């Protein structure tokens, strides 16, 4: 028996659509695996009732198949499904690490990125690595089209505010523009470069500036009730940057040290003003999946 934990993540970070990701110190999923003749899945925790246990419809089933590692898999969800916090990636990453250890498959953490991405395809229809990369490697990550990933350690205060609404990954991808103007392209590249430099320096001001995005975020923000007010409230409370976390509906804010509590309170109040309940996680850039 092997148990592994993998963290919630936030993908895109505004200017890095399908490319950037960051691991959060909490919440997290825990996955326990035991050898079995065929894969069986049990799910408990946040939103468990909405997660299929059929191995062909669950991300961990795809991971077990990719590793040729049938197992009895128990998932304890700490990351709510359809939250924009990498719920499926957390399960996929934890399962990949645990099954790799259980069956001694010999994969490195970087080698497990495309394996865990196969699990993501079950949810979104495509094998994206922008969430599984930080869930496996920790820190701030940049993924390539071949699912290769680079990770950078960063020390940054973050707030992830999860409203009591649901935005599906498929719906969020459906509103993404199919083309962009050269002006927006240049602005996005400049912002993404600024964000990357900020992560390398653990500089909240640069990261916040670099999160601005004229293309994807405005389209996805329309799916989140109260987003504009929450963003404005967070910035007024001391956030250096605010954006949609992944596909949403969570909203991610970067803060200066000592500002997380006030930013978290402002974001919860902002959603409340829109008639939406929410929960704010005061977190930091965290580590990747670990065997417990």
Automatic annotation (TrEMBL):
Q: Could you confirm whether the keyword Endoplasmic reticulum appears in this record?
A: no
SUPFAM superfamilies (alphabetical): GHMP Kinase, C-terminal domain (SSF55060), Ribosomal protein S5 domain 2-like (SSF54211)
Q: Where does this protein hold ATP?
A: 80-90
What is its EC class?
A: transferase
Where the record annotates domain GHMP kinase N-terminal, the positions are: 60-139
Q: Where in the cell is it found?
A: Cytoplasm
Q: Which GO terms are recorded in the biological process aspect for this UniProt protein?
A: threonine biosynthetic process
Q: Name one GO molecular function term.
A: ATP binding
Q: Name one GO cellular component term.
A: cytoplasm
Q: Fetch the Pfam families from UniProt.
A: GHMP_kinases_C, GHMP_kinases_N
**Reactions listed under catalytic activity:** L-homoserine + ATP = O-phospho-L-homoserine + ADP + H(+)
User: Does Nucleotide-binding count among this protein's keywords?
Assistant: yes
Family, per the entry?
Belongs to the GHMP kinase family. Homoserine kinase subfamily.
Q: Which PANTHER family match?
A: HOMOSERINE KINASE, HOMOSERINE/4-DIPHOSPHOCYTIDYL-2-C-METHYL-D-ERYTHRITOL KINASE
Describe its function: Catalyzes the ATP-dependent phosphorylation of L-homoserine to L-homoserine phosphate.
Q: How is this protein named in the record?
A: Homoserine kinase
Organism of derivation:
Halobaculum gomorrense
Q: Which gene is this protein's source?
A: thrB
